[in-house]
Write a structure and sequence with these properties.
Helix content: 55-70%
Distance between the termini: 35 Å
Strand order of the largest sheet: 1-2
Shape: globular
Number of strands: 2
Strand content: 5-15%
Low-confidence stretches: none
Radius of gyration: 17 Å
Order of helices and strands: EHHEHHHH
Mean pLDDT: 83
Number of helices: 6
Length: 108
Amino acid sequence: MTAAIQVSSQILNILLRYIDEEGIANADFRSRIEAAKSVDRISIEHWWGLLEELATLHPIPALGIQIGMRGEIQDAGILGYLAASCDGFMSCLPEVMGQAVSALMKPW
């Protein structure tokens, strides 16, 4: 069941960066990406639909890898900054979990 899965709309910046760098001039596609950025989160189905449409507009081998190479830290939101501040994502988990538990245990 994927209906409840959502991703940050910040990830749409990767698609915009990709279409700009590759010179993909499709105003309708771009406007739908821009419109989707107006909310904090989009459904995983929406994200997949945009990726599938881009694959139709720009059918090249390893498109997903080419898109992913355009990713920047800010595209992953706070998790991107967290991962960048640690030796690796797994080394950040104890710190994050400790802070989360501390926040939950605070008296209101």
